[in-house]
Design goal:
The protein has 120 residues and is an alpha+beta fold. The protein has five helices and six strands; from the N terminus they run H-E-H-H-E-E-E-E-H-E-H. It folds into two domains: 2-65, Winged helix-like DNA-binding domain superfamily/Winged helix DNA-binding domain (Arc Repressor Mutant, subunit A, Orthogonal Bundle); 71-119, Dna Ligase, domain 1. The chain has helices at residues 2-13, 20-30, 36-48, 90-97, 113-119, and strands at 18-19, 53-55, 63-65, 71-75, 81-84, 107-110. The chain has a three-stranded antiparallel β-sheet. Strands 5-4-6 form a three-stranded mixed β-sheet, with no helix packed on it. A hairpin with a 5-residue loop joins strand 4 (71-75) and strand 5. The structure holds zinc ion (2 copies).
Length: 120
């Protein structure tokens, strides 16, 4: 339980979209005895109970994020993720489709400044 709370705390305090392994290394600095499997288990629970958000991108390990409503800019070269706060389009979707949706996950593709620099 202690780990679960700590993991949630780290995710909520971070803008980095951490992978399980990155979370593991952060946790290990505080609790040297923690093992990676524990981190995976706790992340699974936190995700199942809706306390964290999971970002899955093709070819990248899953990353974890806070649940506060926001969307993502995703670099199509390196997979870097940054947060973008847009107005909620739930109502628009529901009006147009006539169905009640659960949630939506907007990923906006772009090329990040780093990759742009490298391409030059
Ligand atoms: Zn990039
Ligand atoms: Zn985010």
């Amino acid at each position: 339980m202690r780990y679960e709370e700590k993991i949630l705390e780290i995710i909520n305090a971070s803008n980095e979209h951490l992978t399980a392994e990155q979370l593991f290394f952060k946790l290990k600095q505080m609790y040297p005895r923690v093992v990676l499997a524990t981190v995976y288990n706790n992340l699974g629970n936190l995700h199942k109970t809706g306390k964290i958000r999971k970002i899955s991108l093709e070819g990248c390990p899953d990353r974890f994020d806070k649940t506060v409503k926001h969307d993502h800019l995703v670099c199509r070269e390196c997979g870097a993720i940054s947060d973008v706060f847009l107005s909620d389009i739930t109502e628009d979707i529901e009006k147009q489709t006539g169905i009640i949706i659960d949630s939506y996950d907007l990923k906006i593709s772009y090329i990040c400044p780093e990759c742009k620099k490298q391409a030059q």
